[in-house]
Design goal:
Elements (H helix, E strand, L loop, with lengths): L1 E4 L12 E3 L2 H8 L5 E3 L2 H32 L3 E6 L6 E6 L1 H12 L14 E3 L1 E10 L2 E11 L2
Parallel strand pairs: 4-8
Antiparallel strand pairs: 1-2, 1-3, 5-6, 7-8
Amino acid sequence: MEVILLVDVKKVGKKNQTVKVSDGYANNFLLKQKLAVPVSKKSMEILEEQKEIARINEENNKKDAQALAERLKDITLEFTAKVGKDSKLFGSISLKQVEEEMKKQFNITIDKRKFIDKGPLDMLGIYKLRIELYKGVIGEIKVHIGERK
């Protein structure tokens, strides 16, 4: 029996994939657990519509990420911190602080796990942080750390 998988099924196939399985497996497990639907003209039409919607959403998300990357180019976040010898900070500026500052100043929410450059921001100066906004779309912001008087 041919079925369209509604979710990923281990050792059978991925979501939206059409697979051929035994009648018993399809009737007693896949269909009963609502993991698949039988292949029919209507179900194939629905599958094609869903694929088209997913493709459009993918394009829109990528465009949004590219627009955000353009906006991030102009952003410089300012931080001040106590400084010890050799322009070394007492502590460091964390990515969480960078994330919160972006939210507070520019109302841009970016998950700290999206940052590519995860190194410590523990010296005075300007850092360029790269952020993966979407698959293949990388934005960059500047972080300036100055001395607190």
